[in-house]
Write a structure and sequence with these properties.
The chain is built from 9 helices and 11 strands. The chain is of the alpha/beta class and about 300 residues long. Strand 8 and strand 9 form a beta hairpin.
């Protein structure tokens, strides 16, 4: 988005006086800002359904609490549509970081809401979203789940192999294949992919790499996992958690989960060899017809 292109801004706030004040700021900032407002997230989603919004300004009195579970879920819904800027009353760095950690592009303190400060923040938020989309277009990130895509996973795995050879280390590569028991060959929905992604992220450590490897397959690189028994425990937990129905959304799709595991250096000593052996192990499980894991 060039500096001369108009901005479509949606402000979400229960405070009508605050909305009117920011609308006046937009008028003073430039004539190229189209201003929309909503009192809550439900109303905001109605605006998003009918208008192309470039950026959202969120003022729900959140500065006292930071990003709790409900706020994180709300921000996740909003972030799918446009980048979000949060307004706070406080300069508390921990509160600010809690919003950044759950996807907020910028945090504006209320005293920074000046014509120049607002315009700068809006342009920054839009530029950040465009940069993220550019990475996705380069196939570094999967556009549905936000996970590493297959090309990026290959690069990370190759680096792990070189590092493990140098340090004489041990690591595991897991391919997680999922298939609906009754859905035939239809592609998985975005909702199902995001549900499974969230569950994998809750199971794995922050140091592990999770990728969308294929349409129905995730790849996991688990470094510094000291024992084969630890890998077995993780694989069993993946199967158990991914097969659970999602009670909150009513998702009841029955899934077969097949986990193929290759170990460096015992299964193979190259990135290509590890993926090949893990794929063979996946096929062994699929042939059995039941959710399970297998080592290469």
């Amino acid at each position: 988005m060039s500096a001369s292109e108009p901005i479509s801004l949606l402000m979400i706030s229960p405070n009508q006086a605050e909305i009117e004040w920011v609308a006046q700021l937009c008028d003073r900032t430039a004539s190229d800002i189209t201003f929309h407002s909503a009192a809550d997230v439900a109303a905001a989603e109605q605006v998003l359904a009918g208008h192309k919004i470039n950026v959202m300004l969120l003022d729900l009195g959140l500065s006292e609490t930071g990003a709790d579970a409900k706020i994180i879920a709300m921000l996740d819904r909003l972030n799918r549509s446009a980048p979000v800027i949060v307004i706070t009353d406080s300069a508390d760095m921990d509160v600010e970081q809690s919003f950044i950690d759950c996807g907020v592009v910028d945090v504006l303190h209320r005293q920074e809401l000046t014509p120049s400060g607002l315009r700068r923040s809006l342009r920054y938020a839009i530029a950040r979203r465009e940069a993220d989309n550019h990475l996705a277009r380069l196939q570094l990130l999967d556009p549905v789940t936000g996970l590493a895509a297959q090309p990026l996973f290959w690069e990370i795995l190759a680096l792990a192999v070189r590092r493990a050879k140098r340090n004489r280390d041990f690591f595991a590569v897991m391919l997680v294949d999922f298939k609906s028991v009754s859905a035939g060959s239809d592609a998985p929905t975005d909702g199902l992919l995001n549900l499974l992604t969230t569950r994998l992220q809750q199971i794995m450590r922050a140091s592990d790499t999770i990728a969308r490897f294929d349409s129905r397959q995730f790849a996991i690189l688990a470094e510094s996992m000291p024992r084969i028994e630890d890998v077995q425990i993780v694989a069993a937990k993946i199967i158990s958690e991914l097969a659970k129905p999602d009670e909150a959304s009513g998702h009841h799709t029955a899934l077969h989960i097949a986990v193929g595991i290759a170990l460096f250096p015992t299964s193979a000593a190259s990135a290509e060899g590890l993926i090949s052996r893990a794929s063979e192990a996946v096929q062994q499980v699929i042939t059995r017809g039941q959710s399970d894991f297998a080592f290469a």
